[in-house]
Amino acid sequence: MLTATQYIAPLMANFDPSVSRNSTVIYFDNGTALVVQWDHVHLQDNYNLGSFTFQATLHNTGRIVFAYKEVPVDLSLISSVNHPVKVGLSDAFVVVHKIQQIPNSGLTSDSSVLLSLRRAQFVISVSLSPSFNADVRRRTIYEYHRVELTKTKITNFTAVEIMPLATCLQFTSCGECISSQINFNCSWCHRLNRCSSGFDRHRQDWVDNSCPEETKDKLCDIVDTTRLYPSTTSTASRTTARIREATGGGDGLHRPVTNQRSH
């Protein structure tokens, strides 16, 4: 099921390199970019449409380039009966939820139970523990983002450049995380020392470590040390990552304040 929701596809269709001796799929990796080229490939169920030549380049910066040299027909005319036809990107993650434990009801150690319910993008599997109880777990597939390119614009000698956007995962401290101004709602999980929107490939860790509960207040642990002459007082508090200006009391003195983040 993940193959339907996780892909990098310059052109996904019912291609079969074995139907022609001239068809090849080659790749090259120079350490900073991976290039994969489909050269003179044909559709298995419609050989007479002609051969396709195209490539995908994945840069280590996250930049992706699709290039098309030979596209003999309008891509919207390719049949999707035997195989999906897609151009673009998609990603998903799987989260496993434990539902309940079924007591032993005549099952033996040799029993093998597998229950699969493929509805609304989830699968329920049942496995036996050593004590012959059955743990029921639900595996849910979340497709959290997809980029679909317009097929009619893909023609001979065209190219598509896809640039990555900033994400929560790039922030390495709590302050940077919760004060970020990007298109994601970033939260910091102290148990994992990780910034996330909660919806990425690390979702399972995020849930298992109770990060959704921890990040509700979107606060960081800050140690505020205020030096009061002739004495010194240290207080621990929780505050947002915004810079605060501290002033003295009614005596008109401005007391120095040091904010130190602990991660």
From TrEMBL:
Residue ranges of every copy of the PSI domain listed in the record: 167-212
A Pfam family matched in the record: PSI
Membrane topology, as annotated: Single-pass type I membrane protein
InterPro entries referenced in this protein's UniProt entry, alphabetically: Plexin_repeat, PLXDC, PSI
Start and end residues of each stretch annotated as Disordered: 242-263
SMART domains (alphabetical): PSI (SM00423)
Family: Belongs to the plexin family.
Name of the featured protein: PSI domain-containing protein
